[in-house]
């Protein structure tokens, strides 16, 4: 599992959910936030969720109510329905992964977080692998769920894959005792085989990230929101996933 991640992964700071600024009408995970990050030459981190008809959409929340005029669970909607639902504070519409790839067109790196309910559903990994097979730009996929990371080894062996973690997880329903502790310590890594780690900045330094760096796995850290966070990121990680500041 010794590291072999490309240099572009850590070459520049990564804008968390794009370079968003709600006060300026630039909302997270929207085309406007993506364009702003491209203009500023930052990498871009966004979230992917799977729809009722198997499409990967760029959106963070399980439900639509915080950011859009909808209220339903995202997973209950088709891609076409989601693209028709207005955001509350922007004229942008929700993107598919394909839309995102067309918009970025390889100009800056993409880091895609595959959202999971830890229920064994691999569809978001399957759809991401299918779409990214024809994408020529620098791109990585990551998830809190080691099952999705493991699945990407088979679905997209050449795709850069990573694990997202923090030291303290809530115990997951239906999982054995100690499962959440194992996630924080990355004890699944010999099986899931991540090629990089994205770890919570509030939990740095951490044994898991120290070991990762020792064996050559790059460490990203999230979410960097202050100068103090940035100082910690620079000491204990290889690059920052940031919002609300300009590193």
CATH superfamily: Phosphatidylinositol (PI) phosphodiesterase
Q: What is the overall shape?
A: globular
Write the element-wise H/E pattern from the N-terminal end onward.
EHEEHHEHEHEHHEHEHE
For the record, what CATH class applies? Alpha Beta
Structural class: alpha/beta
Strand numbers in spatial order across the main sheet:
1-2-4-5-6-7-8-9
**What is the number of independent domains?**
1
Estimated radius of gyration: 17 Å
Portion in beta strands? 15-25%
The CATH architecture designation is Alpha-Beta Barrel
Number of helices: 9
- Ends apart, CA distance between termini: 30 Å
- What is the CATH topology assignment? TIM Barrel
Detail the poorly predicted runs.
none
The largest pleated sheet is described as: 8 strands, parallel, barrel
Written account of the structure:
This protein is α/β, with parallel strands linked by helices and 247 residues long. The chain has a single domain (7-49, 96-242), classed as Phosphatidylinositol (PI) phosphodiesterase (TIM Barrel), CATH 3.20.20. 29% of the residues lie in helices and 18% in strands. It is built from 9 helices and 9 strands. The protein has helices spanning 31-40, 79-83, 97-104, 123-132, 146-155, 179-185, 189-192, 207-214, 227-236, and strands spanning 14-16, 43-50, 56-58, 110-114, 139-143, 160-165, 196-200, 219-224, 239-242. It has an 8-stranded parallel barrel with strand order 1-2-4-5-6-7-8-9, surrounded by 6 helices. Helix 4 (123-132) packs parallel to helix 5 (146-155). It is globular.
């Amino acid at each position: 599992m010794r590291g072999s991640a490309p240099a572009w992964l850590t070459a520049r700071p990564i804008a968390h959910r794009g370079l968003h600024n709600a006060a300026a009408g630039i909302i997270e995970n929207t085309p406007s936030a993506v364009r702003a990050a491209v203009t500023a030459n930052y990498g871009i981190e966004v979230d992917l969720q799977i729809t009722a008809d198997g499409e990967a959409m760029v959106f963070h929340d399980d439900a639509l109510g915080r950011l859009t005029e909808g209220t339903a669970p995202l997973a209950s909607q088709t891609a076409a329905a989601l693209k028709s639902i207005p955001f509350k504070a922007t004229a942008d519409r929700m993107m598919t992964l394909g839309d995102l790839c067309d918009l970025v067109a390889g100009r800056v790196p993409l880091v895609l977080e595959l959202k999971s309910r830890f229920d064994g559903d691999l569809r978001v990994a399957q759809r991401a692998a299918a779409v990214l097979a024809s994408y020529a730009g620098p791109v990585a996929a990551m998830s809190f769920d080691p099952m999705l990371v493991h699945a990407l080894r088979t679905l997209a062996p050449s795709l850069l894959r990573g694990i997202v973690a923090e030291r303290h997880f809530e115990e997951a329903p239906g999982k054995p005792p100690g499962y959440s502790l194992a996630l924080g310590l990355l004890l699944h890594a010999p099986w899931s085989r991540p090629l990089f780690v994205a770890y919570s900045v509030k939990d740095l330094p951490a044994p898991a990230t120290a070991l990762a760096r020792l064996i050559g796995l790059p460490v990203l850290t999230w979410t960097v929101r202050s100068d103090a966070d940035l100082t910690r990121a620079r000491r204990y990680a290889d690059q920052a996933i940031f919002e609300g500041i300009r590193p």
